């Protein structure tokens, strides 16, 4: 009897091991077989620019990584952004150009709900631009928003004292009135950065600077209007952009779509959900950078 009981337990253990082994093989198959099947398959990479642009690190890193990957034949830059700070927008713009020039890969910009100001600046670095008919784009201009608290402080009985070593070191200070000379100096900086934007658009869209200037007054356009003005190439969604990238990249058959894995970030949540209000508050209250930003 003891031998029979031991034999039954042994059979059940074997059955259990077989069952768990089958589950493990099924899981491994689902996890790795698709990757093995796509090994060597041509790929189209998607880099997403979403929310206000205050930092370029992630986007530049992703563009560099996909640019160096021999399996990636073309890149779609999906833009859903009202723009942001000037320098990060320019850094992403330059990263797109490097992918095209150094790695000789095609880049297609796909516009979502909004791809304005700094978002549009990035788009003009690509080979082709697709927008939805209702996309808000354009806003070719630069803005610096300054607040002045002098009257408020006077009501509170508070006086600000600035100790400085340069005549214009407190230029744009929120604690004193802006003089005409201050405004002229700031305006000169704004005009220079505005000119950089205009020249980038002219270069990227193969237009004369003189043709871009009338469009560069900060106004926004729908995707349909932008196409008529030659600011975008065609109308289409992300699917259309992927198909176009496949054609331009010489992809054989159906491409594998790849995107970088992104970890959850509280910062991304804040900028995604509260981005526009946050950028407006920051721009007015604590620091005043030059902004390629669609400001409502």
Reading the helices and strands in chain order gives HEHEEHEHEEHHHEHEHEHE
**Class, according to the CATH hierarchy?**
Alpha Beta
Average pLDDT, all residues: 85
CATH superfamily placement: 2-enoyl-CoA Hydratase, Chain A, domain 1
Distance between the termini: 85 Å
The biggest beta sheet is recorded as: 8 strands, mixed
Give the strand content. Answer: 15-25%
Number of domains: 1
Radius of gyration: 27 Å
pLDDT below 50 for ≥5 consecutive residues: which ranges?
34-38, 273-286
Shape: extended
CATH architecture: Alpha-Beta Complex
> How many beta strands in the DSSP annotation?
10
Give a written overview of the molecule.
By secondary structure, the chain is α/β, with parallel strands linked by helices. The protein has a single domain (41-293), classed as Alpha-Beta Complex (2-enoyl-CoA Hydratase, Chain A, domain 1). 49% of the residues lie in helices and 17% in strands. It has ten helices and ten strands. The protein has helices spanning 2-37, 57-68, 86-102, 118-123, 150-156, 180-204, 209-212, 223-228, 238-248, 266-285, and strands spanning 43-50, 72-81, 83-85, 106-116, 128-131, 136-138, 220-222, 234-235, 256-258, 291-293. Strands 1, 2, 4, 5, 6, 7, 8 and 9 form an eight-stranded mixed sheet that branches. Strands 3-10 form a two-stranded antiparallel ribbon. Strand 1 (43-50), helix 2 and strand 2 (72-81) form a beta-alpha-beta unit. Helix 2 packs parallel to helix 3. The radius of gyration is 27 Å and the shape is extended. 33% of the residues are buried.
């Amino acid at each position: 009897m003891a031998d029979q009981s031991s034999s039954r337990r042994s059979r059940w253990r074997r059955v259990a091991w077989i069952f768990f082994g089958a589950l493990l093989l099924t899981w491994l198959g689902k996890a790795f077989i698709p990757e093995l099947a796509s090994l060597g398959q041509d790929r189209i990479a998607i880099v997403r620019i979403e929310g206000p642009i205050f930092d370029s690190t992630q986007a530049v890193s992703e563009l560099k990584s996909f640019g160096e990957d021999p399996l990636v034949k073309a890149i779609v830059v999906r833009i859903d952004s009202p723009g942001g700070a000037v320098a990060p927008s320019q850094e992403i713009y330059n990263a797109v150009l490097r992918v095209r020039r150094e790695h000789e890969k095609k880049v297609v910009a796909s516009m979502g709900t909004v791809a304005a100001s700094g978002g549009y600046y990035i788009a003009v670095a690509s080979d082709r631009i697709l927008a939805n008919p209702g996309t808000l784009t354009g806003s070719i201009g630069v803005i610096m928003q300054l607040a002045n608290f002098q009257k408020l402080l006077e009501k509170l009985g508070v006086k600000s004292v600035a100790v400085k070593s340069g005549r214009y070191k407190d230029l744009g200070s929120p604690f004193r009135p802006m003089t005409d000379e201050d405004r002229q100096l700031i305006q000169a900086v704004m005009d220079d950065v505005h000119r950089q934007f205009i020249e980038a658009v002219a270069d990227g869209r193969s237009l004369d600077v003189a043709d871009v200037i009338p469009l560069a007054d900060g106004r926004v356009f729908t995707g349909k209007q932008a196409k008529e003005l030659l600011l975008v190439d065609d109308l289409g969604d992300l699917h259309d952009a992927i198909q176009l990238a496949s054609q331009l990249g010489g992809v054989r058959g159906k491409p594998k779509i790849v995107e970088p894995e992104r970890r959850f970030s509280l910062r991304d949540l804040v900028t995604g959900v509260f981005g526009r209000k946050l950028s407006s508050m920051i721009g007015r209250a604590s620091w005043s950078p030059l902004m390629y930003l669609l400001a409502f």
